Amino acid sequence: MPILRIDARYVVAFQDGEHRLLENGTVVVDGDRVVFAGRDYGGPADEWVDAGDTLVTPGFINTHAHLETAPLDKSFQEDIGQRQFFSTGLVETLLLQEASIDEEGVDTCVEFSMSELIRTGTTTVMHQGLRGRRVAEACDRAGLRAYIADGYKSGRWYTPDGNRVAYEWDEDGGFAGLERAVQLIEDLRGRGSDRVRGFLSPWQANTCTPDLLKESRRLSDELDVPLTIHAAQAVFEVMDVMAAHGMTPIEYLESAGFLGPRVVLGHAIFTTGTSWLNLPGDDLRRIADSGASISYNAWTFARRGIMVESLPAYHRAGVNITLGTDTTPQSMIESIRWSAILGKVADRRADSWLAAHLLDAATVNAARLLGRDDLGRIAPGAKADLLLWRLDTPAMSPVRDPIRNLVYYATREDLASVIIDGAWVMRDGAVLTVDEAGLSERLQRAGERSWGRVPDHDRLGRTLEEVAPSSLRPFR
Q1: Do residues 167 and 155 make contact, with C-beta atoms less than 8 angstroms apart?
Q2: Would you give the end-to-end CA distance of the chain in angstroms?
Q3: Cα–Cα dist 368/385, whole Å
Q4: CB 169 within 8 A of CB 154
Q5: Which residues form the Amidohydrolase-related domain (predicted)?
Q6: CB within 8 A of 382, min separation 6: which ones?
Q7: Which H or E run includes 221?
Q8: Residues 273, 304: contact at Cβ < 8 Å?
Q9: Are 345 and 308 in contact (CB under 8 A)?
Q10: Are strands 47-58 and 33-38 parallel, antiparallel or unpaired?
Q11: CA 266, CA 288: separation in Å to the nearest integer?
Q12: Which residue, 150, 128, 138, is CA-closest to 65?
């Protein structure tokens, strides 16, 4: 590959263990690696890009995504939250959505996700689902860096009457799922010049037995892959784990030997001390002491009136905070902004949760979880995963502190170009690796097919309108 030189007004360069702001800087890429970040470069370059009024940052690392279904959350999951389930959509609406989507719709969601991730700054994504090979193939074609997991569990939840949660257990099925997940990891080794890798994802703390958790952790260590699980994501989950084991989900995972530096806990919102539960204990210390990380997905919960209380408290406790998207929009721009604002709201302080903290969460903190000191930074030897942001747009100007502008004001339209593994995947606003023609129309048709199947999967045979009423009555 040719040597690429980029000159820009600002570069977020990594120096002495932290991000630093380099003004009028240069980044040089040779192959898939950064070979220079600084000023006064005197070496060769085959391509020289004068980016002008631009901010160059590391690519964002999205640590929690469900690319197979997330795009169809839109227009279905909002404004609904049954009080008997403490506002979560996990028990009814999410199960209905997943049951109603067809395989063509899955393929459309995956392809749509490729475009959405690139256009909103994700260069590395951690995906959890049930169709890992198909997602891996799409990520490979799109040029994304990806960690892919096929989820597995010992049981499933459901509601028999719309008022309570019940469980069906199949422990053998959980271990069979683990075997398939391990096979996927082996099959993906070296995929996409090692851009696409596998990892392990037992689904939820309340649907996995201690034995499945222990074996997952053992295999994570043996295979040297990350490990993730949904934990402390719902009030009913905490209550059910307390009833079954006498422990919070975090305590339960710790007792099973699950927690560790390669573990990321999806959500981890309902921990001890939250006003939703008022449970004594010290879940945050347990997470921090284990070296585990959390993936905070602010928008997913904020739309239901739920947020961490408070994210700065997790930071002060020493928890490694990373960010994900989980649902639609699959935008790290939005994830960063909502995490920033809600952290301040919960803490009732403007200065306890800063733009620099959010930049770290989206980059180096996630790289630490992955065990990758070559990601999440711009420095010689790091992978060339770069974002080029325009600073001359209405949203980004005027500029005094470009990191504050990025966190609090940037939009997807301000992201001009994306480089992953040294290759342009988006340039001057055009995605080069995904055929976007007709994608929105295909997603609309997938949604209409899915919505029409809701009565077939609803326990009461309700229509979509009865499950998720429209905002306005029709005009007559």
Answers
A1: yes
A2: 62
A3: 16
A4: yes
A5: 55-425
A6: 14, 33, 34, 58, 373, 374, 375
A7: helix 210-223
A8: no
A9: no
A10: unpaired
A11: 15
A12: 128
Angstrom distances, CA of residue 266 to CA of 191, 234, 251: 25, 11, 15
181-236 per-position pLDDT tens digit: 999 999 999 887 899 999 999 999 999 999 999 999 999 999 999 999 999 999 99
Q: Which of 469, 458, 412 is nearest to 60 (CA)?
A: 412
β-sheet bridge partners, residue 418: 387, 426
| H-helix segments, 280-434 | 283-290, 298-302, 311-316, 332-347, 355-362, 364-370, 402-409
DSSP reduced 3-state for 175: helix
Residue 180 C-alpha from the chain's centroid: 23
User: Which structure tokens are listed for 451?
Assistant: 């919505």
Residue 68: Cβ within 10 Å count: 24
CB 286 within 8 A of CB 251: yes
* pTM for the predicted model, two decimal places: 0.96
